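Hi F.,

I've been meaning to write this up properly since the lab meeting, where we talked about keeping a consistent format for the predictions we share between groups. The idea is simple: the sequence comes first, exactly as it goes in, then the structure tokens exactly as they come out, then a line or two of notes. No screenshots and no reformatting. I'm using this chain as the first example so we have something concrete to point to.
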Amino acid sequence: MQNVQGTTPYTKGMRDLMKKVLGVTKARETLSSIVERVQHQGDTYLISRHGKPAAAVVPVPDGALMSISAPR
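Output, unedited:
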């Protein structure tokens, strides 16, 4: 498994689930690369702020967006 530079390990359970953890600053700097890996390789990322989980970047399953309506 290849890590994006600046990733840090989290708790084992969270690390197993998310595979990669980035601080918000590093995530912002490498967002394009993160999205590329998520979309094409199925990687998942946990974004932390001040050492606490804040957001996740995960692949969108095929057809998952069908249930989301377009903005009006």
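Notes:
Residues 20 and 45 are 5 Å apart (CA to CA).
The longest strand covers residues 52-57.

If this format works for you, I'll send the rest the same way.

G.
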